[in-house]
Amino acid sequence: MSTPAIEVRGLTKRYGPTTAVDGLDLEVGHGETLALLGPNGAGKTTTIECCEGFRRPDAGIVRVLGLDPRRDGARLRPRLGLMLQEGGVYPMARPAEVLRLFAAYYADPLDPDALLERVGLDDARRTRFRDLSGGQKQRLSLALAVIGRPEVVFLDEPTAGLDPAARRLAWDHVRELRDQGVAVVLTTHLLDEAEELADRVAIVDRGRLVALGTPDELTHGEGGELEFSARPDLDIADLSRAVGAVVEEVRPGRYVVRAQNSPRLVAALATWLGDRDVVLGHLQAGKRSLEDVFLRLTERDEVSGGGRANRRARPTVPEDRK
Amino acid sequence: MTADRRTPMLRAVFAQAAMELRMVLRSPESLVVTLGIPLGILGFFSVVDVLPTAGRPAVEFLVPGALAISVAATGLVAVAIQTAFERKYGVLKRLGGTPLPRWGFLVAKGLATAAVLAVQTVLVVGLAVGALGWSPAGGGLIAPVAVLIGAVTFTALGLLMAGALRAEATLALSNALFLVLLVISGVAFDAGTLPDGLAAVGRALPVGALGEVLRVAFSGEGLATAPLAVVVGWGAAAIALATRTFRWEP
Questions:
Q1: DSSP code for B141
Q2: Bridge partners of A204?
Q3: How far is CA A213 from its chain centroid?
Q4: Is B250 contained in some domain?
Q5: What torsion, rounded to 10 degrees, do the Cα atoms A88, A92, A95, A99 define?
Q6: B16: closest CA of chain A, how far (Å)
Q7: Which whole-number Å values give the CA distances from A8 to A24, A117, A184, in the listed order?
Q8: Burial zone of B241 (CB within 10 Å; 0-12 exposed, 13-18 middle, 19+ buried)
Q9: Contacts of B225 (CB under 8 A, 6+ apart)
Q10: Per the structure, how many domains does chain B have?
Q11: How many percent of chain B have pLDDT more than 70?
């Protein structure tokens, strides 16, 4: 890989006294899909909008296809596809008209009618944008992002408001882009979406990158732990004695055994559960869920009081994950 | 690779203009303002002689006013409101992410506005000549140029509002301005019947000034430079201000 499709170095963006993005570094290769994951206000949209050329960074360097999105926007935009978080379409226009309009902006666009069919808007081709459902609007926005055969695509919460079937359709679209060698950056709140789609996940919190890696790298905890779900409020003190390791209820009904996974450990757990007639929900060994990683990394002091009071000392962010 | 990806600019601008025009046609309230009001004023007051028209045949007095009002209705009201809501709904922002450059968008908007204006002019003049017996003594050259200059001025004023204010504020302000201009600019009736101060204000505003330029031109008295300068001045100020204050984002 010679030059990356997207290169962000030390990106900083402030709005008044608030620092939205604080020295962020990212690199996305051609044909790679990166998911920007983070709580609301983490700086995901600002980061993307700096790459799209909508915002001028206060500090740092942004290069997309080797070009400065602010200075070389005119050369960059024909090769760029994007999806804003909402709207962006004439309320009175119909999907077919909007796709044809956008097709006119590009030298070698996809066929608007075929694209309309592929995103499942064939039935709504004559419905005015304002009368489309939230999901239909999202699908049209996605189609507009790809109609120009872009080399780089930015998707800001592409599946917000989609039902599961439509989400899967959108995922197929994104995978197809990656297969065609398109670099994709998407923001999402959905952990399964990040896990499903992304080659790498960047977890962002308060404008900083707190973790970066493949979903596998992020979810493989240091030292294999055992995670299981069952009914809430098990007697974890007794269970801890029985299995010979610390057990925590990290969320109601969700337990983590802080010990190296072993056949003996699993047997002890199963025996304890069996003696008490407790039904096991799921059992996972040696791998944390991305959700767990995400919550640990982005947990805010102000929200960690009530709901997770039974959680023990919070693990700190390991340096090597930065 | 990059060379053959260059935007087909002519195609893009025309597609954009067609979309803008389609959106105008799909908003009935803007058609009422752009076509209904000027034609209504011209038709009604030509036939029903109730307003003071300075001793001239009503139609002779009303045609220049109706033209000035139609230009104002398009630029100051229709374009302003449409653009304001395009901004509110993020259309302008989204277009900023496409290869259509801003100048391309403005040219497209200009083309769509010009198309509306052409229809208005044909209808106003057609109604006056065909049904109301209007025959101007001159102005064949000056009037079209004045209408174009007026169109640029009012569109710039409309965009000034649309790019700086909230969409709802633009909606309210443009309609209010339009109403005030309609009353004090001497387009529908002779401003001489207004109090002196108000009449002077009317003459200093672009609708009254444009009406005056057209009235003089159609009477065969040539170019009225002072009122034309007023129209140009408003246009230049609006453009200068709009280029500094226009925001593309919601």
A1: T
A2: A209
A3: 12
A4: no
A5: -60
A6: 7
A7: 7, 36, 14
A8: middle
A9: none
A10: 1
A11: 96
Asked whether A26 and A187 are in contact (CB, 8 A), the reply is no
- Classify residue B39: in a domain, yes or no: yes
DSSP per residue, B65-112:
HHHHHHHHIIIIIIIHHHHHHHHHTTHHHHHTTSS--HHHHHHHHHHH
Phi, psi of A146 (to 5 degrees): -110, -5
Residue B122: which domain range? Answer: 8-245
Q: Are the Cβ atoms of A52 and B97 closer than 8 angstroms?
A: yes
Residue B204 reports pLDDT greater than 80: yes
Task: Tell me how far apart the alpha carbons of residues A216 and A188 are, in angstroms, rounded to a whole number.
Answer: 18
Element (H, E) at A250: strand A246-251
- The two structure tokens encoding residue B68: 């000035």
CB A102 within 8 A of CB A90: no
B235 and B152 Cβ atoms separated by less than 8 Å: yes
B153 found inside a domain: yes
Nearest to B35 by CA among B148, B113, B124: B124
Q: What is the ipTM of this complex?
A: 0.90
- Locate A205 and state its tokens: 């919190």
CA distance B9 to chain A (A): 7
One-letter amino acid of B2: T
Distance, in Å, from the CA atom of B36 to the CA atom of B47, rounded to the nearest integer, reads 16
Give the per-residue pLDDT at B236: 97
Residue A60 CA to residue B80 CA, distance in Å, equals 38
Please compute, for residue B196, the number of CA atoms within 13 A of its CA located in the half-sphere on the CB side.
0
Task: Please give the sequence-ordered ranges of beta strands (E in DSSP) within B131-241, or none if there are none.
Answer: none
Using alpha carbons, select from A147, A153, A95, A85 the residue that is nearest to residue A122: A95
Among B11, B16, B89, whose Cβ lies nearest the Cβ of A91? B89
Residue B1 confidence (pLDDT) above 60: no
Give yes or no for a contact between A151 and A76, defined as CB atoms under 8 angstroms apart: no
Query: Rounded CA gap, A155 and A160, in Å?
Result: 11
Whether residue B193 is predicted with pLDDT greater than 70 in this model: the reply is yes
Is B226 buried (19+), middle (13-18) or exposed (0-12) by CB count in 10 A?
A: exposed
Q: Is B2 part of any domain?
A: no
User: Do the bridges between strand A33-37 and strand A200-205 make them parallel or antiparallel, or are there none, so unpaired?
Assistant: parallel
With CB atoms and an 8 Å threshold, state whether B19 touches A54.
no
Are the beta carbons of B4 and A107 separated by less than 8 Å? yes
Residue predicted with more confidence, B22 or A191: B22
CB B207 within 8 Å of CB B124: no
Cβ distance of A79 and B97 shorter than 8 Å: no
